[in-house]
Amino acid sequence: MTLDTDCMRYIALFESSTGAVVRDCVVDSENDRLIFVIKQGEMGLAIGKGGENINRVRDMIDKKIEVVEYSDDVCEFICNSFQPVPIKSVKIVEKKKKQLAYVEVLKKDKGLLIGKNGRNIQKAKLLASRHHNIDDILVI
Domain K Homology: where (predicted)? Predict the structure, then answer.
């Protein structure tokens, strides 16, 4: 995983403004957003009281910001990437030399999980691939 200079600048700005440690940064130009993967246990620090930290960074860079808490556990990480959608279960299966994650949600939450134009599932697939070598995420 390599980061370009824009990502490095965004990480420095985010860390200095929030105090949270950033593990990864994704610039999603298509959806006009930045996705930060932060160190486990630092979500509160990243968001700040009443969202003040994250809002300050958003105002400085004029982009939507999404924050995902990292976990070494692939299932927990996938759940974190779909927050605040409640996930019933995540199962990792190997099929034809590919790592697949099956995510189960209530029927009423499927649309929320996928997101407008698939943006939430895209984010989860990208992050799961970058951090845990998951080839695809399937919703059941």
Answer: 30-97
